[in-house]
Amino acid sequence: MKLIHCLVAILFITNSFAQTPDYMIQGSHFEQKICNIHKHLHSDELLAEPVSKNYDVKKYQIFLDWYNALNSPEKPTKTYSGINSISLTIQEETDRLLFDAQSTLIIDSVFVDNIKWTDFQKMPELLSVNFSSPLSPEADINVKIYFTFSSEQAKGFYLFNKPASVSYNYNPEVIAYTMSEPDDARYWVPCSDLPSDKAIVEISGKVPTGFEFISNGLLQSTENGDKYTIFNWKSAHPMATYLMVANASKYIKLTQSYPLKNQSGNIEIQHYVWAQDTVSNGVLDANRTFANFPEMMSFFELNFGDYPFEKYAHICVAPFSFGGMEHQTATSVHRNWLTGNVSHGIAHELAHHWLGDLITCNSWQDIWINEGGATWSEALFLSSWDPSYYEGVLRNYANRYFMDNEVTTAIRQMNTYEIFGSQYTLAYYKSGWFYHMMSEMVGKDNFLAALRGILDRYKYQSVSTDMFKEALKDLIPNPPIDWDTFFYQWLDMPGHPIYKIGYKTEEYSTDSLKVFVSIDQQQINKFAPEFYKMPIRFKLTDGSDNIIFISNQFINDKQHQLFDFITPKGFNFVEIDPMSVLHKSIGGTYSLVESKDDIIDSKIFPNVLKNGEYATLLYHLPAGSFHSVKLYDLNGNYIRTIFEGTISSSDNELRFLSEQLSTGAYFVKILSANFSDTKAIYIVE
To answer: For the whole model, what pTM was predicted?
Structure first.
């Protein structure tokens, strides 16, 4: 699902960033769109924890009679009748079946295997169908529920009359639609409203003649009656209840044909819009907005694998509290998207059909799989237009995450009802960066190949974080940072690393320097890890944002750590590459200085020795200083680390073995956060 936010105050990419797509530039047409509300629940609307079900739904066959509702949209109480025939398999012995059914639903009657059932109880949030004898595991049962929806509250089911004056943020015709994420399906139809319980869905709708009724899957048939039409839709693949959709208005249908890359035949791409929104070069122009959609489909097939469903549709809706919603095969999009400049939003919803629909979060604690994947996919797609867009988009997301004060909550600890509200920066931007950092760590091509493997392994299933992680362990078994650590520190812990870095240089050649960089992680968030183990790179610039050098990847696996590398001359600023890890830096950078006052009587004896003999290094540092002692050859090439850690006293004696060294001169480098010194040794025959 794509949120719409008030962008003027938060999109502030500067010229120092990579090239930024037009839609992200301040003052662009995109920013002039309305600021839609997030999805918030009042405290009295919060539901209890999800009720554990002892069955697995195989199929929903839903009938919705919207004829009277659409003929009388001005009535404050919205009412319609419906039927849901639920085919399920018992998983555990039980004497009752519980279905999610909110107070908006009145249960008229229940049939079990075509027998009228009287032993049922409607509770405020549940329907209990009771049995005198326990149902056995693996038994197949059909429960048909006749119900009436009645509510003045706009929740789950939305019905809007045609307003007297219409702008592109509102509806030019009467419209009715459902919107269920995260768990509002229970407001418009009795069901098992859990993302873990996927089922085949058939939805039929009765609407006045002249209306279109659109739902998931393919249209199987229509039935025309006196002043009404019934549309019958059927999905080919199972889906979670929050991905079900029904939508009705006086639409016209635009179509495109897309030839599938590795499958025979074409699929039809459908765009349901209002007729006045197809005027060429108008403010709203559906043809212009969706013109490049086949290109987008081709991009995601190339990167994620074959498109996994039988059709793709856009259904324009307004009023709508979101930008878009990835209902399986039938994406709902806000009407104001037809003003254009929303390729990122369209890409987000399309990417969800792999990351969200083909595989679906097993619980709302796993929502990062969906929203993080689709958010990262926006940057991925836009980079196909201009590679520099990738960095511009990701750094914009980082800024929006850092502007949020919600830093004490971990991604997997989010409140279900604030995923799309106060905690959206975690669900979208931090989670999107999680995908990016996985890709950075193992390489983009390797990560995309693994992602395709995960999508194939778990296709049409609900996937937990542990399932996703275990698949990565199989597909990329030896990452620089083990997957357990990587997942734990980014998904189960709040916050992000905060670095303080310092550096010093030494002449290496006429046109290059050896740079020594000290890293100190200084977490201010008591809930965050003490330090993050992460692959990092260093970026060196000349002070005018011209990049002089970007280092290779280093592994930062200690709270205090020292690194060195060779770089061209001409830089005057060193930082951790902002694209290598989601982080903050404090205090800028500072120079390390060589100080004879603080390193006193540093000496090695003997300094001439044979290979395999021991040498002793004496040096003085303030007690408690974290430092390293490293060995380099005459050309400045790193040989090995002799010591790295913290000392408890100020006077130190370090004995080390000069093994596996050929004859010649070597240097022993002592480096701490503020002091450095170098001593020579010579290996002889």
So the answer is: 0.84
